[in-house]
From TrEMBL:
Transmembrane segments: 12-30, 42-64, 123-144, 173-191, 200-222, 234-254
Domain of life: Eukaryota
Rhodopsin domain span: 26-260
Keyword Transmembrane helix: yes
Organism: Emericellopsis cladophorae
PANTHER family per the UniProt record, alphabetical: INTEGRAL MEMBRANE PROTEIN, PTH11-LIKE INTEGRAL MEMBRANE PROTEIN (AFU_ORTHOLOGUE AFUA_5G11245)
Keywords linked to the UniProt accession: Membrane, Transmembrane, Transmembrane helix
Compartment(s) of residence: Membrane
Biased composition (Polar residues): 271-285
Protein name from the UniProt record: Rhodopsin domain-containing protein
Region (Disordered): 262-288
Main location: membrane
Organism ancestry: Eukaryota, Fungi, Dikarya, Ascomycota, Pezizomycotina
Keyword Phosphoprotein: no
Family as reported in the entry's similarity comment: Belongs to the SAT4 family.
Length: 346
């Protein structure tokens, strides 16, 4: 792995934060403006993930300013400040990285149908495991050095420091990588047998495969700490993992923003135009001998949300149904004629 100069830390992390923030804002815009819906649990967890990433970025910048990447501070006040900042940064990465994982678990609650009970059980077990890992990480970072966290910024020789502990780092990483692999693997059994066109299956697989970036960043970070010892890389890879996880969670909701203008419906599982209209007419001969009674119904389907896919309970497993809001306008010929006879304003 190439060594990253320390001056690259700030601009690279800034770009990663900007990308993840743009993804979150776009997702929330789709939810509130495009769809007019309230935020879901997944959305709120995504907001928490973004706030945590901003906090991690802030602690990284403070640590950089205080000399974490050199030159190391010389005064006791600066050294204590640096230790406090790095101790706080432990929470924003080690525990905060679980917020995007929990957001994905919340998405899976809607994604995995009751007709696949075994997969739903696995989803619930994964959620419980993720929460357990997050709490364990938080308590481990807090109390590894004893019941008084202040020992972590002690300047005494040989004082315990959670931030510098390789044992804590390895335990945290094992829980992190195990939860990543399980969470990002969970939706792939859904793809088998789904009645979707091949290009849509590829698209769904590509979205969840983006989680590989998160796993790769985590593995690279572990190797950097254990073998390479290039600390600027550690800072950048930590933010890369966080940003990639946030973007992966945001992607499934961004379909309406990516749809081409004027794209037509492609069928039951197609992308759908923004508004679909159909008109049907029925003719009934009246007993009085008057003109036929004509009833015309205009059916308009609301705009396809393109957001979180929701699998409904159906008779077969591995079946996905697309739902849409439909409005119907019903009008008879007599109503039409009366409307035509209305005076037109000058």
């Amino acid at each position: 792995m190439l060594e990253t100069p320390k001056v690259a830390v700030v601009p690279v992390e800034s770009i990663l934060i900007a990308l993840s923030l743009a993804a979150v804002v776009a997702r929330l815009a789709v939810r509130r403006v495009h769809q007019g819906q309230s935020l879901t649990v997944c959305d709120w967890l995504l907001v928490a993930s973004m706030l945590d990433a901003i906090a991690l970025f802030t602690t990284d910048m403070l640590a950089y300013k205080l000399g974490a990447l050199g030159p190391y501070p010389t005064t006791e006040a600066e050294q204590i400040s640096l230790k406090k900042v790095t101790f706080a940064g432990n929470y924003f990465y080690d525990t905060g990285v679980y917020f995007p994982k929990l957001a994905l678990c919340a998405l899976y609650v809607k994604l995995i149908p009751p007709t696949m009970p075994q997969l739903r059980k696995a989803m619930h077990a994964t959620s419980v495991l993720t929460v357990t890992f997050a709490l364990t990480t938080c308590f481990l970072d807090t109390f590894w050095c004893g019941t008084h966290p202040s020992v972590n910024w002690s300047l005494e020789d040989g004082a315990c420091s959670t931030y510098d502990s390789k044992e804590v780092f390895r335990i945290d990483w094992i829980m992190n990588i195990v939860s990543d692999v399980i969470i990002f693997s969970l939706p792939f059994p859904l793809l088998k047998g789904l009645q979707l066109k091949p290009r849509y299956i590829v698209g769904v697989a590509a979205i969840f495969s983006a989680g590989i970036v998160t796993v790769a960043a985590s593995v690279s970070r572990f190797a950097t700490v254990e073998v390479i010892h290039n600390w600027p890389n550690v800072y950048i890879l930590s933010m890369t993992e966080m940003a990639a996880a946030i973007i992966v969670v945001s992607l499934p909701a961004l379909k309406p923003l990516l749809r081409r203008r004027g794209e037509g419906s492609t069928g039951q599982y197609g992308t759908g135009a923004s508004v679909q209209r159909a008109t049907t007419s029925s003719h009934v001969k009246l007993s009085s001998g008057r003109d036929p009674y004509v009833a015309t119904a205009h059916v308009s389907s609301a705009e396809d949300s393109g957001s979180d896919v929701e699998l409904r309970t159906v008779g077969r497993s591995n079946v996905i149904y697309k739902t849409a809001h439909v409005s119907v306008t019903y009008q008879t010929r007599e109503d039409t004629r009366e409307g035509d006879r209305q005076p037109t304003p000058n």
